[in-house]
Structure formats: structure tokens, C-alpha cells
Write a structure and sequence with these properties.
Shape: elongated
Oligomer: single chain
Low-confidence stretches: none
Distance between the termini: 75 Å
Radius of gyration: 25 Å
Order of helices and strands: HHEEEEH
Strand order of the largest sheet: 1-2-3-4
Structural class: alpha+beta
Helix content: 40-55%
Largest sheet: 4 strands, antiparallel
């Protein structure tokens, strides 16, 4: 009778660990695939906002160069978030190098 309870407990442990690994695997799959895209089919395919560069200045402040709707903005992120430059335009030579 003692062996039967031990085998039953081991089988229950294996079942619970299997469910745990199945749940973790499913969450990782959804994270990699993009869970937002599964439910929001009408969302536009092109992203409007993109982070181009990120530079940490010190422990509190960072410079972030972002592009929004074909306009670039330089942001100072820190204790007070500020927009440093708006509508940064690229020269023709720089834009040809990126293409």
C-alpha cells in the first residue's frame, strides 16, 4: 500500500510539472509570435513610431532619437522629459547612404 501511494504522488508531480512546462511554452510561443497581432487584425501594418538611437548620458538621463510619421525628434529622457530638437531633416547624402 505504501508503494502505491508513492507511485501515485510521483505521477501527480509529473502531471503538474508537465502542465507547468506546457503553460510556460505556450506563453513563450505567444510572446515570440506577438499576442497583440492575433487579436487586433484591423491594426495598421506600418508602425508610426520607431526608436532610431538610444544613448545613455548618465544614471538619470538619456538621449533618444525617434522617428514619427517621417519626422525625427531628439528627446532628453530623465527627471524632466524634454524635446530637444523637432523635425530633424536628413541631408540628401545621408538619406542616400541609408537606402
Amino acid at each position: 500500500m505504501d508503494w502505491f501511494l508513492l507511485i501515485k504522488a510521483a505521477m501527480a508531480l509529473i502531471f503538474v510539472l508537465g502542465l507547468l512546462f506546457l503553460t510556460i511554452g505556450s506563453l513563450k510561443y505567444l510572446e515570440d509570435r506577438g499576442i497583440k497581432g492575433m487579436f487586433n487584425k484591423n491594426a495598421p501594418k506600418k508602425k508610426r513610431l520607431e526608436v532610431l538611437e538610444f544613448k545613455r548620458l548618465d544614471g538619470k538621463n538619456a538621449l533618444v532619437l525617434i522617428r514619427r510619421d517621417e519626422a525625427e525628434h531628439l528627446l532628453l529622457i530623465g527627471s524632466s522629459a524634454q524635446v530637444i530638437e523637432k523635425n530633424i531633416s536628413q541631408t540628401k547624402q545621408e538619406s542616400n547612404n541609408h537606402e
